[in-house]
Every structure is written in C-alpha cells, then in structure tokens.
Specification:
transmembrane; 3-stranded antiparallel β-sheet; transmembrane helix; membrane; 58% helix; 144 residues; alpha+beta; rod-shaped
C-alpha cells in the first residue's frame, strides 16, 4: 500500500488511471440544466397567465358590449366581472388590473399585470352591435 502521491504515480504506471472528469463536467453542466428548466417553467407560466388575461379581457369586452346595447352597462360591474374571471387562475402574476372604456360604438378593456421585470399589457375590444336600429332604418327606407 502506497501513500500520498506515490499512490497516483503507481496507479498510472500500472495502466489504470483515476478519472474525475465526469464529476467536474457535471458540476459545470447541472446548474446550467437547472437554470434552463427554471426559465422554461417561468416562460410557460407567463404564457399561461397571458392567455387567461386576454381571454378574460375579451369576455369582459363582449359582456360590456351586450350590456351597452341594453343600456345597462357600468364600468364598475365590468371591472368586477373581469376580476371574477381571473380569480384563482393566475400562476405567475398575482395582481392584474383592467381599465374599461365604453363608447357608443365599442367597449375597450385594457389589461396590465407585472411581476419584477416581466410585464403583460394588452387591449381587447368588442363592437356594440345594434341590429334593431339598422333594421328599422332599412324598413323605413323600403316603405318610402
């Protein structure tokens, strides 16, 4: 039995070598793999929340257009509807807000959410359709 450096030298002389290259390579590669996995998961959560926010914004805009057509629309009711639609569904973004703008022709919902440097901002619109007015105008023109 040899001691110290003599052990390594004698092992090399006998044709067997001691290798630690796999351990050292893994020490460099594994943090890179873990970082890539975390970035992929973060991106997946980001896009998950983005889809939910855009869908809730569009649904709120369509609901607002229907209520505007019936002249029952209120921005506070629509903001509550938006918050109800996203409640408990977001993974990455905890606080999202919606700014609702109503006009005679369209309802616009602007959304925003932020966590750190990650941010989602978007806008969805729905036209206020009034087919009964169009049909009345056409029927008046036809009777003339």
């Amino acid at each position: 039995m040899l001691k110290g450096n003599a052990t390594l030298k004698s092992a090399a002389l006998k044709g067997t070598t001691l290798k630690g290259s796999a351990t050292i390579e893994m020490a460099y590669i594994m943090p890179l793999f873990l970082w890539m996995f975390l970035m992929i998961m973060t991106a997946a959560f980001y896009f998950h929340d983005k889809v939910i926010l855009y869908a809730a914004a569009y649904e709120t805009a369509v609901t607002g257009a229907e209520l505007e057509r019936r002249e029952e629309s209120d921005e506070v009711i629509l903001a509550e509807h938006f918050q109800e639609r996203i409640k408990g569904k977001l993974i990455f973004f905890s606080g999202a807000s919606a700014e609702i703008e109503e006009s005679l022709e369209k309802v616009t919902v602007r959304i925003s959410a932020q966590k750190g440097k990650w941010r989602i901002q978007g806008e969805e619109r729905a036209a206020v359709m009034r087919p009964e007015i169009l049909l009345r105008h056409k029927s008046k023109e036809e009777t003339r």
